[in-house]
Amino acid sequence: MTQTAVETQLQVLEHEPYLQVTWRDNETSARGFVVIDQLVTGIATGGLRMRPGCTMGEVAELAREMTLKMGAFGIHVGGAKGGIDFDSADPRAEGVRERFLQGVRPLLERFWVTAGDLGTQQEQLDRAFSRVGIGETSFHAAVVRAEDQSEVRSRIHQAFTTRMDGLLLSELIGGYGVAESALAALEHQEIPAESARAVVQGFGAMGGSTALYLARAGVKIVGITDAQGLITNTTRGLDVELLLSARTSRGLIDRSVLREDDGEAPGDEWLGMDADVLVPAAVGHTITTDNCDRIRGRFIAEAANVPTTPEAEQRLLERGVTVIPDFIANTGAAAGAWWVILGEVVSPAGACTRLSEQIRPLVRDLLSRARETGTSVRTAGLRFARENSQRMIDEMGGAVAFRDLFPETPQGAQIPDVGGEAATLSYAPDLTEARATDIAEAVLHAPNASFPGAGDVVESPLENGRQPAAAYPSYWPGPADEADSAQP
After folding, report:
1. Residue 35, C-beta contacts closer than 8 angstroms, at least 6 positions apart
2. What mean pLDDT, rounded, does the chain reach?
3. What is the helix, strand, coil percentage profile of the chain, to 5?
4. Sign of CA pseudo-dihedral 3, 9, 13, 14
5. Which residue among 126, 154, 367, 388 has the highest number of C-beta atoms inside a 10 angstrom radius?
């Protein structure tokens, strides 16, 4: 089989960002950036990070990733990102963040739905929104489009304060999706989870929950790294739940809890460990041409954003190492939040069930397409996400929305009891902390009920049902008048 080059995001998407904004603080040296890569139904989504050295280029790359994530999962929202070049540990950081929000307030009012990210906790962000008078939640731009805003706010509060396995939705759903993508890849290669081995680089929210749910599925976690180095147990695997109990808020593990046969090694040795799955869950550009030849695993499930350079991925492809790209594997956090906002799920348990239903067949389809065409999973996924994004723009609008963000629930829609189905999974989450009414919830698949397989989207021509933007009065349609209702 002839392998072709791994395509980059820009090569496949073929567009420049819709909007780029630079902000300068008047009290410190901080600078901030917002990039709206693409609008769908007049809105875009992406977190706000704060770190020293953050650049416009970094934010633009991450905004493009958000476009891909939304496209891949059929969520009718565009991609965006915010970044502040400032140390989040500085005592002035809170004030910097609030002044930044005030400076870009017009975007946050209607166009940009943001969330916590590197250096910005969701709770900090929500408090900052409230203090500057934008609203009670960083999801404000979406909430204000709902007919019943109080109901949406209540739903968001319930979903994001309910704990499952001791974790909040924002702490568990991202890693759950990475674990699901890795399990789908193993299943596609007919590798039983019980015989598989995995190494996780980074033990923060993403890495910790990935390790937890892989272990719950029966995968042996033989290595975990944090900022202090690598912890290993190649014989019986690490006790992930024990390590989670000894994890600090910064993702550092208290070594005093290690068992007698647990070992330690330099942090960079995780790359060369004998494992089926490697999970980079720390920072970007971790796997490069300088170290990729050390990798012995079959799969890399990207939990971090952009952890593998294109050149390294090309070399891995040539060696038969499959990379499940970040915009597929780690989209759980963004997708879960939007399913809650749109009322398609209302609890962590429902979000996990919904995520599993979508990500497993998606990964299997992309693996099959990559094998059939001799390309990488990233290339297949990029084309799929692009086609799906364009389909949604054609059907629902881009900068000018043709349809409202919140579609009406179809009359007669039933609320399935997902609790029983989830309980049949061998690695089902512990739901004892979730209320029974949260578990037996509505997993409504509108507007995503017709979520297509990857092959269907890539091969089929785009539907050409677009109405001209001039026929619509604004980016947000609001109540339909007689002229609007007369549109075909």
Report:
1. 17, 19, 20, 21, 56, 59, 60, 62, 63, 80, 81, 82
2. 83
3. 45, 15, 40
4. negative
5. 388
